TrEMBL record:
InterPro entries: 6-PGluconate_DH-like_C_sf (IPR008927), 6PGD_dom2 (IPR013328), ApbA (IPR003710), KPA_reductase (IPR013752), KPR-Related (IPR051402), KPR_N (IPR013332). One of its GO terms (molecular function) is 2-dehydropantoate 2-reductase activity. Belongs to the ketopantoate reductase family. This is 2-dehydropantoate 2-reductase.
Length: 346
């Protein structure tokens, strides 16, 4: 998980719990394809729901999870070996559609990701749940499947695969903010029912969550943090405290960068507190120094989430006529580093 401010308090009791006569059928898509295994953690949460049948799509750990199950070590939830209803190596192996598809893979190529799920999606009844970083990640799914319900999520959960099929849940971070992604083809009543059912299943699974009326506000708030710490830690190969202490200019530059992102969000009609950069910086300074998922991906030779974290905010700035020179510089540099990294892997 990328470094961020401390998540807000969650009240799981505020959302409706209910019994369901027909068990929702879940597909947790690509839950093995994360440096920080968010998908694995939520696959565990859904497996605890007596009101859901859970199929998972695994890649790097497919053989291990299929044969032995997923092992989760958590100070919060205890140690578990999880057996899923089905373990697949690809969505194409499912041979059916699902009620909910949970996407927890990195938002590297959302156009192709949306298309690859066509085989498991009935747009008239499906709900796609996006547990991913960045802004603008929902639109490829809306364009590919206009009628379907989209639940967009901001996660504050930390989990890491320490060996194939073994995931460690980091105690400090657990929480999910969820809300509906709107659009012209939406059925408000159906979408609200899908959100209520999903919230009830999170509660049944025993995790912290919050239903929010404006999920895009929370996405932009997290981007203020991610757009700073991800590229800075990647380019400098320093953790946050080391960077902030590296020169008298480091803190002011970081604040200016965050302010650029806040300005873009506000011009886009997002109600974002202008004090957000100061609050994020204060939180970071007063807590442990961290790296970022982008830096971890670079070290591991994996593609980085450049577009949803940097590219899309920058394009929004250009569209709205907002000057964002620091964001533009970091995007240009990280794009080059990402290309070099991909070429090195080949």
């Amino acid at each position: 998980m990328s470094s961020d401010i401390t998540p807000p308090a969650y009240n799981t009791d505020s959302s409706p719990g209910r019994k369901h006569r027909d068990l929702p059928k879940f597909l947790d898509y690509d839950f093995s394809n994360l440096e920080f295994r968010i998908g694995s953690f939520y696959a565990f949460i859904f497996s605890r729901c007596k009101d859901a049948n859970v199929t998972v799509v695994a890649r790097s750990n497919y053989e291990t999870v299929k044969a032995h199950g997923l092992k989760l070590n958590s100070i919060v939830h205890g140690d578990h070996i999880v057996r899923f209803d089905r373990v697949l190596s690809s969505p194409a192996k499912a041979g059916r559609t699902f009620d909910y598809v949970v996407c927890a893979h990195k938002a590297i190529d959302e156009d192709n990701s949306a298309g690859s799920l066509a085989c498991v999606i009935d747009p008239q009844k499906i709900t796609v749940v996006l547990i991913q970083n960045g802004i603008g990640i929902e639109e490829p799914f809306r364009q590919a499947f206009p009628p379907m319900t989209i639940i967009s999520c901001v996660t504050w959960t930390g989990a890491k695969q320490i060996e194939l099929g073994v995931v460690q849940h980091l105690e400090r971070w657990e929480g999910l903010q969820i809300g509906l992604y709107s659009g012209s083809a939406c059925d408000e009543s159906r979408d609200r029912q899908s959100l209520d059912i999903f919230a009830a299943l999170l509660q049944q699974g025993g995790t912290r969550y919050e239903v929010v009326p404006d999920i895009q506000q929370l996405r932009w708030k997290k981007i203020v943090s991610n757009a700073a710490w991800n590229p800075i830690t990647t380019l400098t190969q320093m953790k946050t405290h080391a960077w902030l202490q590296s020169s008298p200019d480091a803190l002011p530059l970081t604040r200016k960068l965050m302010t650029e992102v806040v300005t873009i969000a506000q011009k886009a009609g997002v109600d974002l507190d202008p004090n957000t950069p100061g609050l994020i910086l204060e939180e970071m300074i007063n807590n442990a120094s961290v790296g970022s998922s982008m830096f971890n991906d670079l070290v591991a030779g994996k593609p980085m989430e450049v577009e949803p974290i940097l590219g899309k905010p920058l394009r929004k700035a250009r569209e709205l006529g907002v000057d964002a020179p620091i964001l533009e510089t970091l995007y240009t540099l990280v794009t080059a580093v990402n290309i070099r990294s991909k070429q090195a892997v080949k």
